[in-house]
Each structure stands twice: as structure tokens, then as C-alpha cells.
UniProtKB/TrEMBL annotation:
Name of the protein this chain belongs to: P-loop containing nucleoside triphosphate hydrolase protein
Record keywords, A-Z: ATP-binding, Hydrolase, Iron, Iron-sulfur, Metal-binding, Nucleotide-binding
Region (Disordered): 17-37
Gene Ontology CC terms: mitochondrion
Pfam families hit by this protein: AAA_31, ParA
GO biological process: iron-sulfur cluster assembly; mitochondrial respiratory chain complex I assembly
Organism: Aspergillus heteromorphus CBS 117.55
GO MF, any single term: ATP binding
């Protein structure tokens, strides 16, 4: 491992674009070797979980960071890696800043906040979350081909179109022999902070008031994957993320309606832990 290369990774995460990568347009394709490359395990990392979505902007990074924090706050050794080199979000979400420093052995120290280690060299981990860019492009293919990914969490919103794409995304993971741990449905309903009543945002996809077996939960049943849970549409999820204190941390110690966002993430995290085989 060359320190130089790792260093440039960090700089990418700081939005400085040192590699001169295009900020938009078609991502460059990476050369692919002939035949099936052998998947490698990341050293000292017990489990790798990819958080993925077919569409952009459905809440992948928000969910990845809150899930990772749910693990980290339980004392599980947890890391998160932002693999979206075109538009990284993790440094903002975790309020990370500054250059990574070197330890006495000249190894880069990971940037840490809320006991969650981000980027580069992290020492032994029980679980590493990969925040994937949206879609099924080269970055996703390369990651799934080159390293052992123990499971994928698929994030979708309830709209038909997003769900159809999510189902295609599940197909990609299955083709690449990556177990799909389940689907998370984001922003299906709004829960009133006053009385706790739920209002469904989209007429389709939530599924309780229409005849027929359809929507995210029905797709999960059809495909034989777990429904991991709901994250409500809530301005606080967004505000907490924007100020770098994700809801799992912001709502620690809060009870009842004050802690519903954190509860939602914890429920999903526990199901992920069970599916991937990490002691909760
Ligand atoms: N449940 C929610 N309630 C309110 N806002 C949300 C929720 N989930 C995500 N958001 C907001 O939606 C926006 C997009 O979320 P996020 O960046 O996590 O999506 P993404 O899927 O990672 O996007 P990209 O595809 O660009 O990587 C952010 O502003 C985030 O704060
Ligand atoms: Mg993202
Ligand atoms: Zn109300």
C-alpha cells in the first residue's frame, strides 16, 4: 500500500478533485481483466456491507451513515467508506475536516467522529459500510468483482419507478454472488411530530389502502429478500445530516416522538446485523 495513493483518496473526499476527474457526465470506464478476477477479503475487516440504490438521491448516504453509527455506538468496531468519488457525502455528514495524520509507524490515522472511523487505515473492524454511488455502473461492478462483499442493503423510495430500478439493482448483486440483506424503504410516510400520526406521501408503494399485492414489501416477498424497515420523511433527518450530527447521535437519550428517527435507524441496523451475522 503506498501512502501517497491513500493520501490522494482523502483529498478526493475533501472535494479538491486532485485527480482531475470529471464532475459530471459519463464516468470513465475502468479496464477490466479477462475472466473472473478473484475476490479479495479486506484485511482485518470481518464483514463488508454495501449500501446501494438504483436511483440517486434516495437517501443512501444518510442511511449508510446512520446505520454505521448505530453499530459504532453499540461498541461494534465500525468503519464507513465513501466510494462515490464523483460526489462524496460522508465528510459532511460526519462533520469531518482536516488532513489525516500519520501515526508513529507512518500509517495514516482514520478521521474519526462519534467513534466511527472513516476512510483509509482503520485497524481491525467488525464491519465496514460502503456507501456506493447510485446505479449499477463501473464503480459498483468493480467493487463487487474485486472484494468480498458480505451483503448489500438496497435503499429505495416507494415510487413505482424507483422500485422497478431497485429490483434491477438486486439482480446485479445476485448475479455477482453478493447476498442481498434486504430493502430499506425511505420517505414513504411523514410522522407528525405532535401526535405521531403517519401520513403516506405517495399514493403508490406504501400499500395499505390499495387492493393487490404490490409495493416495496410485496417485491421483497416476491424476491425472497428481507424488508428491513422504513425511514420516515422528516426534515430533522435532513437537518441533522446537514449539520454533521446524524439522527442516531442527535437523538441519543430521547424518548417517544422525540426519538422516532433514531429508533427507525436502530431497528434497521439490528436487522442488518442479524442478516450479515454480526452480534448485536
Ligand atoms: N428520510 C429522510 N427525510 C428527509 N430528508 C431525507 C431523508 N433521507 C434523505 N434525506 C435528504 O435527501 C437528500 C439526499 O439524501 P442522500 O444524500 O443521503 O441520498 P443519496 O442516495 O446518497 O444521494 P446520491 O445518489 O447523490 O449519493 C439529502 O439532503 C438528505 O438529507
Ligand atoms: Mg450519496
Ligand atoms: Zn399530528
Amino acid at each position: 500500500m503506498s501512502g501517497k495513493r491513500l493520501f490522494s483518496t482523502c483529498r478526493v473526499l475533501r472535494h479538491e478533485n486532485p485527480l482531475g476527474l470529471p464532475r459530471s457526465g459519463t464516468p470513465p470506464s475502468f479496464p477490466r481483466r479477462r475472466g473472473l478476477p478473484e475476490k479479495r477479503k479486506i484485511r482485518d475487516v470481518k464483514k463488508v456491507v454495501a449500501v446501494s440504490s438504483a436511483k440517486g438521491g434516495v437517501g443512501k448516504s444518510t442511511i449508510a451513515v446512520n446505520l454505521a453509527l448505530a453499530f459504532a455506538r453499540r461498541g461494534i468496531r465500525t468503519g464507513i467508506l465513501d466510494t462515490d468519488i464523483f460526489g462524496p457525502s460522508i465528510p459532511t455528514l460526519l462533520n469531518l475536516s482536516g488532513e489525516p495524520r500519520l501515526d508513529e509507524n507512518n500509517l495514516l490515522l482514520p478521521l474519526t467522529n462519534y467513534n466511527l472511523k472513516s476512510i483509509v487505515s482503520w485497524g481491525p473492524l467488525d464491519i465496514l459500510f460502503l456507501d456506493l454511488p447510485p446505479g449499477t455502473g463501473d464503480v459498483q461492478l468493480t467493487i463487487n468483482q474485486e472484494i468480498v462483499v458480505d451483503g448489500a442493503v438496497i435503499v429505495t423510495t416507494p415510487q413505482d419507478i424507483a422500485l422497478r430500478d431497485a429490483v434491477r439493482g438486486i439482480g446485479m448483486f445476485q448475479k455477482m454472488h453478493v447476498p442481498v440483506l434486504g430493502m430499506v424503504r425511505n420517505m414513504a410516510f411523514f410522522q407528525c411530530p405532535g401526535c405521531g400520526q403517519r401520513t403516506e406521501i405517495f399514493s403508490n408503494g406504501y400499500g395499505s389502502h390499495k387492493a393487490g399485492d404490490w409495493g416495496v414489501q410485496a417485491e421483497c416477498r416476491r424476491l425472497g429478500v428481507q424488508f428491513l424497515g422504513d425511514v420516515p420523511l422528516d426534515a430533522r433527518v435532513c437537518e441533522d445530516a446537514d449539520r454533521g450530527v446524524p439522527s442516531v447521535v442527535a437523538e441519543e437519550g430521547k424518548v417517544g416522538v422525540e426519538g422516532i428517527r433514531r429508533e427507525a435507524f436502530l431497528g434497521i441496523a439490528e436487522r442488518v446485523a442479524r442478516e450479515v451475522g454480526v452480534k448485536w
